What we know:
- The protein is mostly helical.
- The chain has helices at about 5-10, 15-20, 40-55, 60-70, 80-110, 120-129, and strands at about 30, 35-40.
Amino acid sequence: MKIGALASRTGLTVDAIRFYEKQGLIKSLGRTEGGYREFSSETTELLKFIAKCRALDISIPEIRKLLQVRSRSSKSCREANLVIDDQLAKLRARIKELKKLESQLSELRSVCNQELDPEKCEIIKALNR
């Protein structure tokens, strides 16, 4: 299957597929006489798996670990658990940071509830401090 057909079946761009190939997550079967990359039909499912991982903000190195578990080259699913535990920890830290940012923005917004001359705007004054 050519890369364009693979892109259509997976919903990924041709550039994304090339990127995953360069990262070693997928392999082409080689090139046709016309120079087009050829991929096996199994690559479709593999790319869908990779896309789901990326949608969960899982990094390329972590996807490699999950692919090892998926291919059963890993002896247990412990590695998959570790990847997901790490993702949860990162997400929880990000949520904490976002809540802090929300609080700071709310506080900043509360200093000015009027439509004043920009020179008198308390938000601008606070940001200039």
